[in-house]
């Protein structure tokens, strides 16, 4: 994981060297500049997390350095170093955005505590930003659930690959939980204490993508009123999850390829290279090999992303997990809505087992959420399942029960090519009853 | 003990240092780093490092002298002094080390802080031993360790020094073993 970068700006060599030596012992990456001019030059080329700036220097003063740094990158913590006589200047610096000031010479304990505090706060800021985002989006799956063989295989893969730092590509249909798998890999990796940053490549409009990923400098374009960090930078020390990677434009593919190669990039309008240390996990529901053939996806990027790959099974391939998943979602939504619903009827479970779930686990989750919201009984009945309504009640609402039953029997018979035994089984009635209903409703086999 | 050929760690008392303290330090240095030790008085005075204004001694200058002092068999040199040390940007330091280098130094000047005269002997020894092992650790490329009990933990106060143990944590032990192995391979050429 990358270490905190500190820049010391002081015109006295002895101060620079003694401070550099001291901070390097703590494992920080330390650089030093003998003047404000040189510091600002260095800042154009490299990004630093913390600046320790002597207030009184020949040429560009410490206060001017502070001003320019804060304009370019407000997240950099600037600590002013001052001699006893110039505390008032230090206080002025605090008003201009300095994090703190230190009186020269300072107590070693005070320095250690201060730097640790800044590092902690910066890590927290990065994390807070994403906690807020996550809270807003609300994780659609709070845990991965499944006892089926395909899911057990997925769990095994996750356990194997999580501790490595390899780039991973997760494939699978929409709603199968690719994002959840990515989060599980992050949680079980040595980067688990770092941020998990999601970029939904399909949801961010092309013209915003660049600024969203790389960030931008203040004034880089008309709306860039403030300098903003991009998601790559926010992922420093953690995992970057590129969801729906198949949707990014050819132009962004070239940019991404470069970033993945050396983890160095520039903010939009920025001149300073930024280095970020993150693991990349991407996901797609598209056939990227076909996209390569159609020349809509770069082959070199594909191989860069696809170091390790695995597929999330569709819900159809693991139907035995449906009751477990449904119960899990039921408990969650019943608790959230404070409703006294504590089960799912046998008939509803049967309906769910017969259904194809094109939207996979996400569709199941939505179905249960809806059923809980509209539910009036202790156990969810089949009628409260959205696909049940679609399948069974396609007739206009003002039809009589008789008309609805007639239409439903006719549809089942047609779907099963008038095979009476099979149709009766689906309708859960015996063959005699089905014959009698066919006669009663005057249902006729089409020519 | 490491089959260290001719390499040893030199313990260099500067000025008057209680011999029982150097004994304690030697014992613990042998235990942690595995090298034999010698007590060698390499510097007899530190006037060259005295800052008149501060009335303190500049530790970085002392380290340079210690590293350059003729001590053929010494892989590392640990200076022990009773004078107050500083580096220009800080008010004082308990010790300083050249990271991955040859020399380090500790001062016992401020280590008696908060110790009553009744139990001064043992507690001062304990603190000095911990500081000595900590600074020597730096010369073997060990950095500050977040583990509170580890000898390489950065202490914010003398109470922190008292709280930490005189042992390396598992992680630092591994890093030290790697460095010792590297030094051994280098020595064998």
Highlighted features:
heterodimer; A: 447 residues; alpha/beta; five-stranded parallel beta sheet; 19 helices; 48% helix; elongated; B: 189 residues; five-stranded mixed beta sheet; three-stranded mixed beta sheet; 17% strand
Can you characterise this structure?
The complex is a heterodimer of chains A (447) and B (189). Chain A is α/β, with parallel strands linked by helices and 447 residues long. Chain A has helices spanning 13-25, 36-45, 62-72, 87-95, 108-137, 149-161, 178-187, 206-214, 231-234, 250-262, 288-293, 299-305, 322-337, 346-354, 360-374, 386-392, 401-415, 420-427, 431-440, and strands spanning 5-9, 29-33, 50-54, 77-82, 100-103, 168-171, 196-200, 215-216, 228-229, 239-243, 264-265, 274-275, 279-284, 308-311, 343-344, 379-380. Chain A is 48% helix and 14% strand. Chain A starts with a strand and ends in a 7-residue tail after the last helix. With 189 residues, chain B is of the alpha/beta class. Chain B is 37% helix and 17% strand. In chain B, the strands form 2 sheets. In chain B, strands 2-1-5-8-7 form a 5-stranded mixed β-sheet, sandwiched between helices. A 3-stranded mixed β-sheet of chain B has the order 3-4-6. Chain B is globular, with a radius of gyration of 16 Å. The two termini of chain B are 20 Å apart. In chain B, 40% of the residues are buried. Classes of the chains: A alpha/beta (447), B alpha/beta (189). Chain A binds chain B through residues 12, 14-15, 17-19, 21-22, 24-27, 81, 104-109, 111-113, and chain B through 60, 86-93, 96-97, 99, 138, 143-144, 154, 156-157.
